[in-house]
């Protein structure tokens, strides 16, 4: 089967769950002998950089939205603005991955052939026509504006993953949110099958997009457990964070819980390592956290890795005693959880979103009832302090990931089954 997976790039400045999910799925499908290629939108994706052109280049898409008549700009000038150096520059700018202020552009892209970026859609569909995929897989529902033209012009089924659309849309003003959800619900009819990353998120998106139960199938992400081996925990305890270094993902909450822990007996050697990269929007908050840690006298016990290197996770994650990314609202999945568990690193996560579902299936962590930093410290303390507790969680988590979330034996076969179903229903 020849599959085109269309996914928005993040510019590789931070740990992007959706990007990582899509890259891993492409690699797993390719290993299974399928002809799959990734099509980046907006910004480059490092692992696919240069192999396929970037469509809907971020600079062109923005200018099409704000400048009347921009669509008539000569093609060669558009290509200049889609050049990789220009897009890398755009990726580093504040607001490049921020929902606020992009309400009209989000809605315009969702309107597809009726939106201001129609020329970008023409270019993408023409290119796909030359590549002749058997199926097109759209990375998330914010790209549903592509589906109608692909289905009608190419006569092939379209499937769409569901993950984190709510995070983007709910950051917008209420009036814009409703318009966007309504447009997504209307465009959902162009998709043969939706693939949610978790049961919790499937229920949420069925309601939001007004989908029948037969329109959504759960296909969770996976990790290549065969390429990973558990390691012994560090000699001195390390509290780890591995996600974008953003306040919305709980980095401030974790810093406060760390400061609280360090005031308690038995945690004189505790260290905090936070990794996952950042955008320019995160810089001021991180500067404030550094000052807070310095004031508490703990700056020398904290390492904040602002530069993101995608493959460094293989070194960073096994160096943690415990992973905690305390996203107050929960996550649609939380790929960092199964990444940590695949190295035998237990986790402490909020009792929200898909975290209860993932930890119930793996047994590799503790759920925290969202509250104060002190309550988070209370949840972290016994796992950090008790080697027997950690060993039990580590063994259960590793076995659970191999059983339920292995990329090659679970995730890829589930995805192929979904593709076959979509092809029958198209």
Overall description:
The protein has 426 residues and is an alpha/beta fold. It has two domains: 2-222 and 407-425, 3-Layer(aba) Sandwich (Rossmann fold), CATH 3.40.50; 225-404, Rossmann fold (3-Layer(aba) Sandwich), CATH 3.40.50. The protein contains 18 helices and twelve strands. The chain has helices at 17-31, 58-66, 75-81, 84-92, 103-110, 118-131, 147-154, 165-169, 174-187, 199-209, 251-262, 283-295, 313-316, 335-341, 355-362, 373-385, 387-404, 407-425; strands at residues 2-8, 35-41, 135-138, 158-162, 193-196, 216-218, 238-242, 271-275, 302-305, 322-323, 347-350, 365-368. Strands 2-1-3-4-5-6 form a six-stranded parallel sheet, with helices on both faces. Helix 1 (17-31) packs across helix 18 (407-425) and helix 5 runs parallel beside helix 9 (174-187). The longest helix has 19 residues, at 407-425. The mean pLDDT is 91.
Protein topology:
Blueprint (H helix, E strand, L loop, with lengths): L1 E7 L8 H15 L3 E7 L16 H9 L8 H7 L2 H9 L10 H8 L7 H14 L3 E4 L8 H8 L3 E5 L2 H5 L4 H14 L5 E4 L2 H11 L6 E3 L19 E5 L8 H12 L8 E5 L7 H13 L6 E4 L7 H4 L5 E2 L11 H7 L5 E4 L4 H8 L2 E4 L4 H13 L1 H18 L2 H19 L1
Helix pairs in contact: 1-18, 5-9, 6-7, 11-16
